[in-house]
Amino acid sequence: MLIPELLRSLAAAEDSGPDIGKLIGQFAQYGIVGVVVVLLILGIIVPRYVMNNLTADRDSWRQAFERERDAHDLTRQQLAKAEERGDVAIEQGKTLTRLLEELGHHPQLPRSA
Fold it and tell me: Which of 9, 26, 74, 102 has a Cα at 20 to 30 A from 84?
């Protein structure tokens, strides 16, 4: 007669305490989802559509930078050519002035009053 009472008291003791297996099961079920939600909120992990948008935005900025760099290179080349042409024109002017002076023409500069 002692054994059935012992079994009843053990069953009552098990029901009154926390069930570790049940707690671990609930944590595995809800805890992982909670961690994923927190990581999404903090921005550590992002959805695929957000990543695709960021990648497309990065690519468009890179293309704009490359176009702008090419335009600046073209501008620099044109400025270098214009400077060369200006240097050539100055040299031609100096040569013409010396030639005219050797032929006897003296340039008359406008005088201020």
Answer: 102
Which residues have CB under 8 Å from 39's CB, separation 6+? 45
Side chain identity at residue 43, one-letter code? G
- Per the structure block, which two tokens stand in for 85? 């042409």
What's the CA gap between 22 and 63, in Å, rounded? 56
Q: How many angstroms separate the Cα of 30 from the Cα of each of 23, 25, 33, 39?
A: 10, 9, 5, 14
Taking the model in full, what pTM does it have? 0.47
Return d(Cα 5, Cα 3) in angstroms, integer.
5
- In angstroms, the CA 19 to CA 24 distance is 9
pLDDT in tens, 56-103: 999 999 999 999 999 999 999 999 999 999 989 999 989 988 888 888
